[in-house]
Amino acid sequence: MYPADYKYTKDHEWIKVEGATGRVGITDFAQKQLGDVVYLDLPQVGRVVKQGEAFGTVESVKAVSELYSPVSGEVTAINTTLTDKPEAVNKDPHGSWMIEIQIASPAELAALLPVADYSALVK
Description:
Structural class: alpha+beta
Strand order of the largest sheet: 1-2-3-9-8-5
CATH architecture: Beta Barrel
Shape: globular
Largest sheet: 6 strands, antiparallel
């Protein structure tokens, strides 16, 4: 259910690393807990975030939740398709990246959960 090549946070974000950058989104577990996603507040390109720091919010019919960065770095892109159609997160949470980040410290990836550990966390 969860892609094996992604890394996960205990806050239910994922990162797919490609070279020195990573794409970040929320997990299937998170979108199910939220319900229908109706709005995303994402950061500006160029914003620098620290690992564990909130970079935006996701609003659903149930609640507003903060989004936390799995790694430190600079936001290099936002998925503008999601800002126009946030409900895509519910349909394909692992294919719906929210931000792309230039990873400042690749060593931080070691603190993230591999798929087996994340799957056990959400059982």
